[in-house]
Amino acid sequence: MLAPGGSPEQRGRLALQWRQVSWITCWVALCAAEALPTCPFSCKCDSRSLEVDCSGLGLTTVPPDVPAATRTLLLLNNKLSALPSWAFANLSSLQRLDLSNNFLDQLPHSIFGDLTNLTELQLRNNSIRTLDRDLLRHAPLLRHLDLSINGLAQLPPGLFDGLLALRSLSLRSNRLQNLDRLTFEPLANLQLLQVGDNPWECDCNLREFKHWMEWFSYRGGRLDQLACTLPKELRGKDMRMVPMEMFNYCSQLEDENSSAGLDIPGPPCTKASPEPAKPKPGAEPEPEPGTACPQKQRHRPASVRRAMGTVIIAGVVCGIVCIMMVVAAAYGCIYASLMAKYHRELKKRQPLMGDPEGEHEDQKQISSVA
């Protein structure tokens, strides 16, 4: 406000200062508006930690006005069932994303394409049945991944390729029956793996993964119990405690399959073979090609009781053989000592007994002297 009655120079100087103050005020207001972006409706935002909490609001879509500088986005306990591929576009600063307790059944392969700084992803308690192998390709910094309580029946090969920073992985309470060892080979820095509460089939398909689990435990990794569901003989038993001898039939099966692949292919084999044509009268019957279906031998998994019984019987037999060898050695030693003692006593008694040969030699000496 200009002072009344002042000189024109003073009034001009005051007006210039007023303009400068106004420009500075506007610039500060614009900076504050950029530093404090708008928060999505009904969500809670923390400007210090850059966290946006939209959990428990019954949302069916991801809010479109999530600030680009957000580092933590919480969308758990909502009604999200399907997400478009651009749901998290331009959120390159996002580090933690929680989508737990929703109704997601499928995720687009490029939904996390812009989340290059993502370190934690929570997908717990959804209805996800399949995963695309390229789903996590653009998240190389991911350290924690939770896929528990879903409907996953298998994991695509290459899903974890490039996730060298992954530390913990949870696959609990899914529909997994077997896993491929090659899928877990890239996880060189994994420290915690949770695979419990799955219907595991402890057969030949899980043998290679058992080798990987033993290596993972040997290098210090933590692993919960992998309880077998099938076969019936191994139900409830931890896969890591099943001896490798139980999988000897797998190598036999592989050898038979490889040898069968070298056979010369014959005519197709069908269960319902057509009836042979009746030969014409006066003509010699032609030999029919062998189209009989060979009966494949069904390999049954070895029984734990049989394996343990074999081990016990082998131990008993080895023990009996060892005892017999010890008894034979002791008998030989005793017999040798008795014979030696007998020969010593026999030598002592020889001078007392008449020796005709010795007397004959003495007579010869006397006759020569004479």
From TrEMBL:
SUPFAM superfamilies: L domain-like. Residues 261-300, 351-370 are annotated as: Disordered. It is a single-pass type I membrane protein. Residues 1-33 form the signal peptide. GO terms for cellular component: plasma membrane. This is Leucine-rich repeat and transmembrane domain-containing protein 2. Residues 38-72 form the LRRNT domain. Pfam families: LRR_8, LRRNT. Keywords: Glycoprotein, Leucine-rich repeat, Membrane, Repeat, Signal, Transmembrane, Transmembrane helix. Residues 198-251 form the LRRCT domain. Its main location: membrane. The chain crosses the membrane at residues 307-340. It is found in: Membrane.
